[in-house]
Each structure stands twice: as C-alpha cells, then as structure tokens.
Amino acid sequence: MPIAPRRAQNAHLTTALTTALTVAPTADDAPFTRGGPATSSAPLPLTSREVVVSGAVKRRHSFDLCALMRLPTQLTGPLDVVCLSGRKVRGASDYKGVRLTALLDVVQWRLPQARDFTRAYVLAQGADGYTVMFSWHELYNTPIGVGALIVYERDAQPLSDEEGGIGLISTWDLRVALRQVRALKRLTVHLAEPPAR
C-alpha cells in the first residue's frame, strides 16, 4: 500500500478529531474549544465567590457571600486607596464587609502552647496569587485589626467581577493599596517556627 494515501487518511482523521474537540456542542448547545468556553480576546476578570480559611485552625471553613453577610458588618466611611507612591488609586464613600478577625474567631486559632499567639500570622491570598500578611498582634492588639476587613460592597453596591467579588482591605494602613487583595480566595493561618534552643 502506498504511503501517501495513508498520510492523507491520517490527516483526514486528525482534522475530524480536531474539529470534534473544538466545536462539539455543550449541554446548552454553546460551542467550546479545548481551552474552555468561547470568549473574546479580553481576559476574564479574576473573581472570588468564597473565602477558604485553613492552616493552624481548629476547623477549616469556607465562607461564601451569604455566610459573610450573616456576620456582624462594618462600614469604612470615606476611604482613599493610596498606592506606594502616595497617589490616590481610587476612593469610596463606604466599603462594607466584616472584620478579618470575625472569620478567624469562627474557625478558632489552633495554638498548642499558651504563648503561641506571639508567633501566629495570617496570609491572605487573591485569585491572582497576590498575598499579604497580618500578625496576630496587628489583628488583636492594634487598631489595624479593627480596619482589616473582608469586603463585598463599595458605595452600597456589590463589588463587581472586575473588582473581584470579595476582597480584603486594611483601612488603617498608610498605603491602603499595598494590603488590598482583590478576589480574595484564601486565608491561611501559620505559626512561625520557634527559635532553636
């Protein structure tokens, strides 16, 4: 059998398979590609619909928007979000949310020794990987804890997908934008290693 016809037959099968993979209808008859749903060239915004709290806690917990709204709410009042250079990035009449400590109190810190709070800290991470840190002392022993908020509304409107859906903001920071997390996905509680004896 000549090689050329076999290559042609294989090429035909490859084309048919590629076509089936890239234009097969989904349950709602919408076309899709192997990379996901057909979209425009603009990237989709990173959005959070829930925050998972884990690590050195007594019980891992996930908070969706409804769960957050059941916790005691707090409003920031007028707030300018300022970047490292001191330039105002955006402003708001109000952000609405819940204190970061409210979520941590629900899951409860797991501190094996009485003084372990001195080495406890929380990493807050967004969908894009941006991560910020708060120590136990900041959250429970300074005004920063009062202003470290998991936010879901700005100016009496839900945070849009472009704003991340659920976010974190530290209103008492001098440069608020540096510890602002859009599309907050997870809070992970850690204990710093104790010094070697």
UniProtKB/TrEMBL annotation:
<protein>
    <submittedName>
        <fullName>Putative oxidoreductase, molybdopterin binding protein</fullName>
    </submittedName>
</protein>
<dbReference type="InterPro" id="IPR000572">
    <property type="entry name" value="OxRdtase_Mopterin-bd_dom"/>
</dbReference>
<feature type="domain" description="Oxidoreductase molybdopterin-binding">
    <location>
        <begin position="50"/>
        <end position="189"/>
    </location>
</feature>
<dbReference type="InterPro" id="IPR036374">
    <property type="entry name" value="OxRdtase_Mopterin-bd_sf"/>
</dbReference>
<dbReference type="Pfam" id="PF00174">
    <property type="entry name" value="Oxidored_molyb"/>
</dbReference>
